[in-house]
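Attaching the record inline, Q. Sequence:
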Amino acid sequence: MLIDTHCHLHDREWFTPEQAEEFLQEAHQDGVQKIICIGTDHQDSLNACDFASNHENVYWTYGIHPEFSGAIRQLDEDILFLFERIRSYDEEERRDPATAGVANAPQEKKTKCPLPVAIGEIGLDYHYDGYDRSAQIHLFEQMLQLALDLNLPVSLHIREAFTDVFAVLDNFPKTRGVVHSFTGSKRELKQAVERGFSIGVNGLCTYTTNPLPPLEKMVLETDAPFLTPVPFRGTINKPGYVKTIATYLAEKLGVAEANIVEQTTQNARNIFQI
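Structure, as predicted:
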């Protein structure tokens, strides 16, 4: 079994409802039995929640991407809303543990959101001109505190900002999780792994020279619809391509594909508890 630990299949800007259903079915046929839909802002996270609540073996995260740090107006209210959803779900589960949190519960569509499996994607991104470093760091700190408050792992988005990310993480030493779509140096990879983080490996590995983590610190992801792997470059990415990434890594690393599948799946299960 394979797990896509980072995709955006719920995002209607990129996938129609029909495409989402088709690609999810294709993923299952390719051995990708579980996927995690990643939130990038408050509403997008709730959309991921709604998608997960109606599909078996689909999970979601709550997060606000650093690109939205300058537009945050009601973060406290949004977080309170998230806590209320979690509280409501907990109450539902206590009333009916047989069906709460189970996709496709008999006879009725679920109305409560399942619990998020992580806080993400969050982090710092200094790639584009005009970024607001101060606002990004402030948002990042709030998201890290939320992860600690909920005892959840994080999915980190870091681009050209590793020095600041590590400095912020020093103030949140109990943070755990994944550095999604790693694009740093070998030194930065070593620093991330030494801090206990796993590394999300996606289609980038098929056409870049980014350093790879040891297998015991690796999880697989697509970031669909982005970063489509070779040989499908130029088309929309989809969760089923996790199989393509696993096959490529097995050849590149000289490891049996079954070992790649087994280890990365176990890593993902351990981190996200799925």
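The chain is about 40% helix and 15% strand. Confidence is low (pLDDT under 50) at residues 99-111.

More tomorrow.
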